[in-house]
Amino acid sequence: MENPYIPYPVRIDEIKTETEDKSLKTFKFVFLNPEDEEKFSYRAGQFAELSIPGIGEIPIGIASSPTEKGFVKFTIFKTGKVTSYLHSMKEGDIMGIRGPLGNWYPWETLEGKNVVIIGGGFAFTTLRSSIIYMLDPENRQKFKDIHVIYGARSPGMLLYKDELESWAARDDLNMHITVDSCDDPEWTHHTGFVPTVTEQEGPAGTEDTYAIVCGPPIMIKFTQPVLDKLGYSEDRIIMSLENRMKCGIGMCGRCNIGKEFVCKDGPVFTLQQLNQTPKEY
Amino acid sequence: MKVIRIDKNDWAEGIEKIRKTYSLIGPVKEKFYHIFANLGSGQMPDMEFTNSRISPKYIIYPQSEIILKCSMNAEEEDYKIYREPEDKEYKEKAVLGIRPCDADSLPVVMRNFDTDEYKDPYWLRAFETTTLVGLACDAPCPSCFCTSAGSGPYNHKNLDVMLIDNKDHYLAEIITEKGEKLAEAAGWQDKAEGIADEIAKRKSDAESKIESNVHTDNLAKQPLLDLYEATSIWEKAAFACINCGTCTYVCPTCWCFDIQDEVYGREGFRIRNWDSCMYPLFTLHASAHNPRGTKLARLRQRFMHKLKYYVDKYENGIQCTGCGRCVRLCPVNIDIRRICNMMNSYDPETCTCEATVS
Amino acid sequence: MKNLLEHMGIEPERLHFSWISSAESTKFVDVATKVTEAAKSLENKEKKFVKTKPKVA
Amino acid sequence: MKSYTDNIKEISKRLLKEDKVDMVIGYRTGSVPLMHQPFFAQNQEEVDEFVWDSNCGLNLANYITDRTERIGILATGCNSRNIAVHIVEGKIKREQLYIIGIPCKGMVDRHKLSAMADGDITSVEDENNGSITITGQNFSKTVDKAEVLQENCSVCVHRNPVIYDELAAEEVTEQKRDDVDPYARVKEIEALSPEEKWAHFDDLLSDCIRCYACRNACPLCYCPLCFVDESNPQWVGKSIDHTDVRTFHFLRAYHCAGRCTDCGACVRSCPVGINVRDFTKKLEKDCLELFDWEAGLNTEQRPPLDTYRPDDPEEFIK
Known about the structure:
Chain A is α/β, with parallel strands linked by helices. Chain A is 22% helix and 30% strand. Chain C has one domain (1-57).
């Protein structure tokens, strides 16, 4: 019997501070046992429990893409007990990863379709995974137009800055970067909130267009009516939820929204599904 | 089905025999009520009891259990690498005198711990190595409602052996292979013939003594969100609720847990503890947002889970076997029978329901 | 607090209160030595309120 | 005690009718014997569900913390003292409350009665003459109420409410501390050796399942985040390890020092019958002896442990 509670041991290979306030760091992990990497085979949109022995576990979306080999990456916001401890750890330290857990963005459904990715703040992690996945030379032709709308409070709070710029330079991806406010005259991208930019730049909702929305509750709240206006139907709006979790395998009972568990039946749901469940997220 | 007659004079001798291969657990009167406890050498189960105050779920699923261990000593090989504790022993054990309602809770809980995708090794191993020697209920509590909750005082469906107290002897129904093995080990072989009618009569007598019931026929048909939004059900009950975890901890079918890390000296432990949906901390986000931040939301979660989400998810009845413990022990008298009947009779058109306890 | 701890069965010798200013280093040493000696001289060596391993299943 | 119930209903109906309060907090008959349910009435019909007898043992002050409505509330001696503590600690305003004082003759101990019964109790009759009749499937037993009172009630010296707007019955005669020794049990424990004391509390807490019913039934335990739930830093482990269990009980009791009115809600609510008062009663005794203090006797004075007086005892500092 496979024990789903035992984490794979990993070593912290690289730590990168992402934002100017140092509240977000990206951790690159390498598996101690190479065969574990194979067992940890994931899809973009899934998450894992990062396990620090003696401290605890924390569910985090996987920021690396399945097309990137040899490591896994997570971007972590410093907030509670486990994430604060994690932020104090160093390259070379040993910890654990348990997963991959949960479902993923519906890649089969999205094939042959236009995809609009809308993200805000530090909820951009599994969206990075998705973008890298879709831009992979083997995968790019599977999708039609790709739009990415990503916003943060200020330029210094944007994640993955180098990658953002390289995506913006590509012609097979429509990149719309925005910040809430900015006094830097050199700033070449948008200024304004994500819902507003979505209204201006987002493609119209058609039978063939799907939106993946991931961000803070306030952004989601104001983006929904915009998508509605653009003509997106509820089953073409895809969202990823977060709830307090412990087991990550649908057993410990805390993350449910109605009869679905965010950890096992989610975290990815369509708006249509969410409208049929209690709003306990 | 094979039925064996066990003379009460031979009972103790049989128990001594099975003690060699099984560790024994049985009802013991402690302070002023019964609990299920390990029976020390020579100790006999006290079979003169109604039921244990707390459900015996902790036999399979301990309230606190070390699930993983690692070294916190950088010199050692398993430094910060969690593994199963090597001293976890799953010796064959036998539970003597468990009541049918408590045995019937096990498959209810198993649906959570044994799924297609994941299996909980601790619960399953403990379950597999346990033989359940049940005791049919001839004098149920006034607050028991097992017969309307998928169980019953003579329900042997989830037992390995069921004992029926018959004055100077027990009649023992041998239900499974596990039960057969235990009866053999005990040397209980005296077949009782021609007593099927008598057992059937005892069964219907016992069932007729269950005075209380719940109505569940309508639960599956009720629209989920209508029940969720039915303030008339939740508001008054939520007022009284003090959000303690009594109902969830005494319940045989509540399974929620928390996982905690602790470090002592140079050893790290990952411990699983029972948790309760009644506590605000259960769902609190690190951002301080709480999806079930109100007392009402938490109380609703408990009853919606037992009586609606579970019903819809598994299509196998309610997540309750009618043992009545939460009814008897809730400090503020929140009665699942009343809530269940309200949910069952709720009319979304008029937003009304019938609050009855019978 | 001291009363309640003693009520629960902590020996009076194990809990000690003193006013010591940050300048009174010698007093601190004296008190610390006295308290450790008092605790060590107790017949019962069992450590109370010290967890060495979680006593759970 | 029919007249108690009738008077309570009458007063409550009047208060709601005259729009003096938005709700009245009382009890309604429970669905099982010995267990009435805290209940709020907002109209005449709901008031008719009210009941008062010897099974109203929880503390209603628990239900007013941080509420903003105008509330009518029933209050016995101990309940009224906890309301006073709430007012002192700023958890409710005196002006919001209309206190219906209930001179109290004590609540019965559900654990004691269950232990006395020959089987399961199906009904309880609370006679006016001071006796209680319990009935079950094959038995019926009448006992003297004094014998089955909750221990805190039998040694209570504040049976009449200390603050109220109106009484629902004539005041009752108070018991004197010289006649009933409230601290007899504390003294018994004090007489034990440290080892015996330790063993006593080990045994006392051996069945604790950490359901927190004692804490949550307590009107003093209103902290939004209890120290046992705090994770950063984590003060107490969450398992049922006996060290953690004892830490929880002893620190919780300590947080109630000088505030506890010995209402007994903690003991009454405990599903496994732990006498949590073995901790709190000691603190109550100390507060009386060291500070001449009893909790909740007025709405002005703060409890001794959050005030400083130059003459505070300091014999423990050496």
